[in-house]
Amino acid sequence: MRMSFLAATGIAAALAIGGSALALAAGSSRSATDVTLCVKDNGQLRLQTPSSPSCDPSEDVVDWTVAGEVTGVVATSPLVGGERDGIVTLGIDQNLVEAANSGKIFAGFDDFGDIPNGGASGEPEEIARLALPDGAYAISAKLTVTGPLLGIARVTCRLQAGADFDESQVVVSGLLSTADATTRLGMPLEAVHRFAEPGFAVLSCADGQGPASISSFEYLKIVAIRASSLSNEFLG
After folding, report:
1. Which of 83, 192, 207, 223 is deepest in the core (most CB within 10 A)?
2. For residue range 149-190, what is the model confidence (pLDDT) as tens digits?
3. Are strands 45-47 and 60-67 parallel, antiparallel or unpaired?
4. Is the per-residue pLDDT at 202 higher than 50?
5. Helix/strand/coil (H/E/C) assignment for every residue in 96-145
6. What's the confidence (pLDDT) of residue 4?
7. Separation between Cα atoms, residue 13 and residue 18, nearest integer Å
8. Given phi > 0 = left and psi -120 to 50 = alpha, else beta, which region is 210?
């Protein structure tokens, strides 16, 4: 079998994924048959036919020797596609592509920062975001909230991914408070989401106690694990 370097490289890559590149249907005869294929720039293969006996100047010529009479070209795993009217169209199975992309971990962190004051509305403001490619994700965020010097802090945080979110609230006492109260608390949040296009996991927080309350965060982390599938059911 003789073929161009480009064609050999493409077929070797397909074989490395775990399947045969092409299955050529053959008749009962076991005699050797030479087949000439024309390889297009976009990867399509075209069988030479009596009406089109030669390849175009823009095509690479590939010669195959097979046993039996060639009657068609059929794609086998991990390729999809096949032959129609002498044109062979091949592509990688998208389920395998998605599976290959699953299991990736995307993460970001911030060691220290102030919690925004929510004002009268108490609406959380963005303090961190993690950029993510399209795909399905299990996303978690964690931070440690530290109270102000005096008074208390009522901190609300929201982890948002598209329309999916999680929200939590903690109340911490001032660092100089004489009361037997907690001055530092960890806050975990979780969400799952499928991005149809690249997006962001956004962590927003606000201290709703007014301008006099200046709380802070430490050890902020956002971790997103990419998965091949996602199921999110209402459990009520």
Report:
1. 207
2. 888 889 999 999 999 999 999 999 988 876 667 999 999 999
3. unpaired
4. yes
5. HHHHHHCCCEEEEEEEEEECCECCCCCCCEEEEEEEECCEEEEEEEEEEE
6. 38
7. 9
8. left
On the question of pLDDT at 219 being above 90, the answer is yes
Q: Domain segments of the chain: what residues?
A: 5-99, 102-227
Amino acid residing at 2: R
Sheet holding 184-195, edge to edge: 105-114, 216-227, 135-146, 184-195
- CA 58, 63, 66, 70 torsion: positive or negative? positive
DSSP lists the bridge partners of residue 205 as 125, 157
Spelled out in words, what is the top-level CATH class assigned to the domain 102-227? mainly beta
Rg of the chain (C-alpha set):
30
Q: Which amino acid is at 226?
A: R
- 137, β-bridge pairs: 193, 226
Give the position of tokens 């499928």.
194
In the chain the first and final C-alpha atoms are separated, in Å, by: 63
> Strand order of the sheet with strand 164-173?
125-132, 199-207, 152-161, 164-173
pTM: 0.60
Q: How far is CA 131 from CA 112, 154, 159, 201, in A?
A: 20, 28, 13, 7
